[in-house]
C-alpha cells in the first residue's frame, strides 16, 4: 500500500536550476497532502505527475515567501480547472491577509470553499485528520513562527487469517466481530480464541517535515521513531554559526536529530544556493546517521510496511 513523498522543491530561499523552492507531496493509499508551496509548485506537480484531486489540506510551515509564494497561482489554477471540493490551508496566522488581495485582483470567483486555518504550534499535538492520515504539529525554532508537521497513517484493524477462515469455514458475517476482538464458536461448540484467528496489522507508517529551524535537542522527541524524516540542512557544518544566526541547521545537526529520534531514513533539504552540489551534505550527515540522503527534486521516497530505507 502506498505511502511515499515526492520532493517538488529542495532548495532554500533562492532557487537554482534543477532545485526549486520548498514543496513536498505526500501520497497515501486514500489521500494526498501538499506541504509547503514555494514559487512554481504547480509546475513541479505537473512534472511529478501529481494532481490535487485527493488533496483536502495544504500545510504551510511559515510565512517566508519561499514556502508559500506558489499558492495564489495554484489556487487560481484549481478554480480554472473546475475544482469544487473544499480545500483547507493550515499555516501560522497571517496567510489569508498576505494572499487574499492577489486572489481578489484576479476577479475570479472560486468555485470551491477555501478555508484558511491559522495555527501556531506551541507543543506536539494532533492537528487534524484527512482520509487515512493523522496530522500532528509541533513548534520549530526559526526567525518567525514556524510549524513542523508529522503525518501518520491511522491504525488499521488486525488481519483475519485466511487459512483459519477456510479451515473453520467462518461465515463472512462473523468476521467484523472477530476483528473487534470476539472469539469464534464453531457449529459443534468448540471455542477458538481470538488470538488464533488474527494477525496484527502492520504498524502505521509516518513522515515528518522539519523546515526551517535551528538545531535544538527537543526536536528529536517530537519525531521519535518516525519512518521518514525530512530535516532542513541549509548549510554544511563549517558554517554552523551562520546557520544559527539565520535560523537554520547544518547537515551534521540534521543527522544528530535523526539519530537521537531513532528515525528510519533522513532526507536533507532546503539547501543554500551557495552549494551547486549537495554530495557533501550527504557525506556529512552519513558520518553520523548512515541512512541519510540529500533530496533531489522529483525523487520519490517510499516507506514499505516491512523494513525501512526505501529510496526510489
Describe the structure.
InterPro entries: Metallo-B-lactamas, RibonucZ/Hydroxyglut_hydro, RNase_Z/BN. Keywords: Endonuclease, Hydrolase, Metal-binding, Nuclease, tRNA processing, Zinc. Zinc phosphodiesterase, which displays some tRNA 3'-processing endonuclease activity. Probably involved in tRNA maturation, by removing a 3'-trailer from precursor tRNA. Residues 204-271 form the Metallo-beta-lactamase domain. The protein is built from 9 helices and 19 strands. It is α/β, with parallel strands linked by helices. The chain has 2 domains: 3-156 and 202-311, Ribonuclease Z/Hydroxyacylglutathione hydrolase-like (Metallo-beta-lactamase, Chain A, 4-Layer Sandwich), CATH 3.60.15; 159-198, no CATH class. The strands form 4 sheets. The protein has an 8-stranded mixed β-sheet with strand order 6-5-4-3-2-1-18-19. The longest helix is centred in the N-terminal third of the chain and has 12 residues, at 95-106. The radius of gyration is 22 Å and the shape is globular. Residues 306-312 have low confidence and may be disordered.
